[in-house]
Every structure is written in C-alpha cells, then in structure tokens.
Amino acid sequence: MLAIALLVLLCASASANSIQSRSSSFSGEYGGGGGKRFSHSGNQLDGPITAFRIRLNSNFIVGLQVRYGTVWSDYVGGKQGELEEFFLHPGESVIQVSGRYRYYVKQLIFVTDKGRYLPFGKASGKSFNAVPLHPNTVLRFISGRYGSLIDAISMHWDTYPSHCNTC
Ligand code: MMA
C-alpha cells in the first residue's frame, strides 16, 4: 500500500515537472557586458504585459519600462532621447522580439499574436531573433543590464497568465 502511494506521488511530481518544463523558456542575453543587472521576474505576478515605454536616442535604446497588468515596472536606463509608449490590445501578447546590438542594444522589434510589428531604434549592429521554445507561450517578462543605456536584454516566455493580480 505504501509502495503504491509512493509510486503515485512520484508519478504526480514527475508529470508536474514535465508540465513546467514544457512551457517556460528563455532567450538571451543580447547585448554587451556593461551595466547593472535588472529583472522583472517579480513584476510578472502583477499580470500579463500590457504596455511598453522605450526611450531612444539616434543610436541606442536608452531606457525601458514595462507595464504588467495595470502596474508599471521601475524605469531602467538613462535620461537622453525621446520616450515612446505603446499599449497592447486586451489579450494581445508579444510572441517574438527581434533587434540589433553592438556593445549596447540598438534596436528592438516587438511582434504580437495579433500580427502587429512594432520597431524601435536603429537597424545596425548584430541581429537577433528571440522566440519562445514552446507553442502557445508568450513574453512574460524581461531582464537585462543597464546604465546610461540598455546594455543587454533577455526574454522570458511562458503561458499567458490565467489570472491577473492587478486587473
Ligand atoms: C554607464 C555604466 C556602464 C554602462 C553604460 C551604458 C556610462 O556608463 O553603467 O557600466 O555600460 O552606462 O549603459
């Protein structure tokens, strides 16, 4: 009896592990080695990504801020350049982030599951295309490095959140 109970527990935990390993994936890091680390891993608890703010100068992505549910993350980056903002539509998700970098991030292109293509910055430097590993998963949060510019960025993918703490 005990052996059967242990076997059931073992199978349950093995299948829980396989469910988990079939949804999350990571792309990166794209950029240079300077700056300080940041991560929005805690922010994802506020809800799905709903908007972005991107500060740009003529050569680089200067700063970033991401909205999770109804709450903006802390701003990371410098003060130069122009701040741009875009909101996703309700239920819309980012399913690809492409871009370019040379020492710092130069360009970011967001592609959504509603077919929108949102490019920011300069098309020069080494290119990257970040996509999730698993089907039906979306951009859940970003991490990276920053100083007076965005030095590097990584993308973290998982299933669309089933609930939103802040909505
Ligand atoms: C700062 C410092 C560096 C970083 C750059 C660009 C000006 O220097 O934080 O480590 O590489 O900004 O973000």
Describe the structure.
The structure is a single chain. By secondary structure, the protein is mainly beta. The protein has one domain: Vitelline Membrane Outer Layer Protein I, subunit A. Helix content is 12%, strand content 50%. The chain has one helix at 2-21; strands at 25-31, 36-39, 49-56, 61-68, 71-72, 76-77, 82-87, 94-102, 104-112, 117-121, 126-130, 138-146, 150-158. The strands form 3 sheets. Strands 3, 4, 5, 6 and 7 form a 5-stranded antiparallel beta sheet that branches. Strands 1-13-12-2 form a 4-stranded antiparallel beta sheet, with no helix packed on it. The protein has a 4-stranded antiparallel beta sheet with strand order 10-9-8-11, with no helix packed on it. The longest helix is centred in the N-terminal third of the chain and has 20 residues, at 2-21. The chain starts with a helix and ends in a 9-residue tail after the last strand. 34% of the residues are buried. The mean pLDDT is 92. It binds methyl alpha-D-mannopyranoside. Residues 34-35, 104, 146-149, 151 line the site of methyl alpha-D-mannopyranoside.
Q: How many E-type strands? A: 13
Helix content: 10-25%
CATH architecture: Aligned Prism
Q: Class, according to the CATH hierarchy?
A: Mainly Beta
Kindly state the mean pLDDT as a whole number? 92
Assembly state of the chains shown:
single chain
| Bound ligands, named by name, code or SMILES | methyl alpha-D-mannopyranoside
The CATH topology corresponds to Vitelline Membrane Outer Layer Protein I, subunit A
Number of H/I helices: 1
Main β sheet profile: 5 strands, antiparallel
Q: What count of structural domains?
A: 1
Q: Tell me the span between the first and last alpha carbons.
A: 46 Å
Proportion of residues in extended strands? over 45%
Name the helix and strand elements from N-terminus to C-terminus, one letter apiece: HEEEEEEEEEEEEE
Query: What is the gyration radius calculated from CA atoms?
Result: 18 Å
Summing up helix and strand content along with how strands pair, one would put the structural category as mainly beta
Shape: globular
- Ranges where pLDDT stays below 50 over 5 or more residues in a row are none
The CATH homologous superfamily is called Jacalin-like lectin domain
